[in-house]
Amino acid sequence: MHTQRWIRGMVAVGVMLVAMPAFAYKIQIAEHTALNIDYLLQVQAQFAEKGAPDGTAWSKDFFVRRSRILLFGDLWKNISFFFETDQANWGKGGKWDAAFFVQDAYVSFKIVEAFQVDVGMILLPFSRANLQGAIALNAMDYHLNMIKFVAGSHHVWRDMGIQLRGTAANKKFHYRLGVFNGAQGQSLQKDAAGAVVKDLNGKDVLRSNPEDWPRFTGHVRCSILGDDTAFFLKGLHFATAPIVSIGAGFDYQHGAVMDRPANLDNKKTVVQKGTLTDALSFSADVYADVPIGDKHEIVFQGAFFWYDHGNDLVYDKAGNRSVVAAKASGLGVMTEIGYRYDFVQPVFCADWFRGNRANNDILDLRGGLNFWIRNHNASVKMEFSATKMGDLDKAPWSKAFTTQAQLFF
Fold this sequence. Notes:
Number of strands: 21
CATH architecture: Beta Barrel
Oligomer: single chain
């Protein structure tokens, strides 16, 4: 009886999702003033090897991956705004203390199509991989192991600042250039126990960006075919015409990371000051979404990442310290390919990172199957992942299976 009720309930939910209209709620306040209200819900079930509390069994975790309220619209002619909240991983691991926070909040001023200004909490314009909106992803989730911003320099890949952007040549060329806060006063030197190292006066011996220099981040994009210039880029367009684009980006901040640690004597007196260095990152990518007829669509994206985030201070078992390359420094390659037939789509992802520090590599393989019930408005995704971290010749595979239901309206 309970099984029959469960089946009837799932059928009812499926019928509701298919019948649901795909539109946002819009309130027209005045001739040039309007408010749109959207909501995104992503619910996941995840089974991870050795993820249970005993450290040996598979976890059986049900949680809200994302719960977002979106408010956006026009304030007046050529003045728009975007506001978004999130409550990520709510209930994951039995924890219900996930913060409800403001993720995006900015105002945009459009002078002309080629020159627009955004002010506020803005998605950092570094690479296409991090400029995609969570609503329109192709794979289950982002390529999280490939996007590496300096600690304390962002909140969910956003930062406070001002950005110039625009399109030209009939939307074939797109640019974004921003000046942001970046890392400010982050404690960089820690002892073997992970505690911040302080001097005789109780002050941190090494903190980032003491002169409060801003961070500069930018991205340029060329659409060879179609239009790939949306503020939040899409992983899958359900395109009716080919979309092919290439892009490149950078992220730079003066004095944001450690170069050399400070030395102290037994009385916590600094005998040699620590030094800082600049954080620098580059990205380059290619994206293609090619429809074939009415029901077939091939999607591919590949990207290259290079990071120089200075040095870290590490300790061995005997307590001896050494200076090594930062954990985020290195070279990464990201790939993602999918083939959609009607509402069914297999997806495969392969990410590889070679760290500048020894035994700090990553190999992440993911294979999934998507069911597009109502395009991005209602979908179900399943994914199996296998990840290695550290010495790839010796590190064991960490495996997980995840399924997700998405509702966006």
